[in-house]
Amino acid sequence: MSFKGHRCSLPGVLRLGDSVTHLPPILPGTTLAGRLLRHLRTLLLISPDHPETRIYYRSRTKIAAENERLVRELPPFIVHPFSSFRKCWEMVMYFVLTLHLVTLAFAFAFAPHLSYGVLSGIQLFDCVLCAMLGMEFALKLITGYVSQGEVVLEPSRIVRYRMRWWNVVNRMLLFVPYVLLLDELVRAFYQDAVTIYLCLVIYLYLLCVWRFRSINWYFAIVARSLFGLSEKQIRLLEPIMDTLYVLHWTSCLLYIVPLLTLSLLGDNGFEANFLVDVLWSHDQQRDAYHYPITHRNRLPPLSDLRAYLQQHLPKMSICAEFMAARLDDVEHNVSVTYRYLRALMITFKISVQGGHSLSVSRHFLHEWTQSLLLLGGWIWSTYILLLLIRTIITADASETQYDEILNEIDAFCGRMRLSESLRRKMSRHFACHYRMHYFDVRPIRMQASDNLRRTVLMEIAFEPFLTRSDVFHDLPAYVLQDIADQLRFELYLENDTILAAGSAADTMFFLAMGTAAVYTQDGVELGHLIDGANFGAIALFRTDAQRTVSVVALEVCEVYRLERASFQKLMRPHSYLLGLVVKQAEKRIQDRSVSLQEFPDEQYYDTFFY
Fold this sequence. Notes:
By secondary structure, the protein is an alpha+beta fold. It has a domain at 450-596: Jelly Rolls (Sandwich), CATH 2.60.120.10. It has helices at 32-44, 53-56, 60-73, 84-110, 116-140, 155-162, 165-175, 182-190, 195-209, 212-226, 231-261, 269-283, 305-312, 320-331, 336-351, 364-392, 397-416, 420-434, 441-447, 450-466, 477-486, 564-571, 575-598; strands at residues 145-147, 150-152, 488-492, 497-499, 507-513, 516-519, 525-529, 534-535, 550-553, 557-563. It has a 4-stranded antiparallel β-sheet with strand order 3-10-5-8. Strand 6 and strand 7 form a beta hairpin. The radius of gyration is 35 Å and the shape is elongated. The relative contact order is 0.07.
């Protein structure tokens, strides 16, 4: 196992090394295929670098135990949701999903203005994206999931969970290649049969808005993995990204809906036919083979389209302004990019209630479209504003107090002119201690009943490390409860010294979470301590005891301390039990003195004397 900033000097057989994966070592003579398969298997196991790993597995010992379960009990094709493979794949999926939904909006909105070759290219590109989304659906069938804080890896449970009908429908609707319908929809547009086109565009708009949750989930993975953003920063960015996403889709919808609804207006037959014929002959020079107009006579070749429109346009037409704007685009050979940017500008203006003009007819259908866009923009902008205010000011009480502590750290470091590295270390210490949510344990202990408080303390300390200590294995449960009540929590960051060789010993330590290295006074590394270890128990029984080794944290370590004075005070009413424990400790000290005469190095191998 590799630890940041730590160079392990232990012999190979004593290192944790491959215990993090529990895979067989690569032996000399292993083929390239065997090496590749082992590397692939490693990518499927839980990775300490995944941003979600530290939430559910708070030490490397737990990571190693989870990988051991994955290697020994489960099929080799099962993918852990916090593996290196999933981290990289989910980052890819964020860009794939975003490109897919953005491409869908653009392609369906501007298909009548795109040439046959460009349409084919867009279809091919989006089909590749759909294929990758389909691969994601298949990979989910062999990837574990988190349910109520539990990581589920059993294949049968994974399949049952993933194959629920609403889950399957939701996933399949995502990777259906809708772009393959574009050719038929453009033909329907030129045949004045736009109802299906219009319904499909609105359906895709609602479907893609429904994908906010998926996009935000993938975005959080990218933000944590690539940029190392905090949860607060992610919460600030998510509504901004969602706003850009909605703005893009609404702009595309705003452009195509008036074109499609023109032919649906009861008394606008001439306007609809004229616009379709102009787009067919002058905008993209369509050919009759791919995009035929067979249901009516086409517009004859004209040298002056505007004069023809003014001559034949009904005097009571409600589409004159809209027709003039579209004809102006054709005469000036306006690009698709310009059309999109103009629609984007109009949508933004309406959404912020800065205008109510789409350059379309004043028919009730268009008026309702404008009104709905205006209402939707007002609701969305208000929602985003309230969300940002809540995130910045009153997001959550515990998170707000945690942020206040960080601000106080910054102010303190600035006032005392502390170095940037020390400021980062202080901030990281609080981040690891509170895990982004501030809490004060004192009122919890004061307000809880004595029985409840003892039950909580026993669950924290009893099973993880008190029962593993051979010093206390003969003590009854009620005494262990008193000991648990006297434990004091401390947190050590990487490379922090937990205890130093040669210092006075007055405290016993319990390592609840983390990994620590043990060194002699000469700096020789002896081994590693992991979750559940205890050391330095001699300090409880000898006032003249000194530390024989140094213990240094290799990762973030959660440690509980038991002071000699507290232990002696709580054991004083139990004189018989105290005498029994002291007698066992004295016997152990005598045995050690005898053994040291034959084996001087044995002093380093018993954690009791650390």
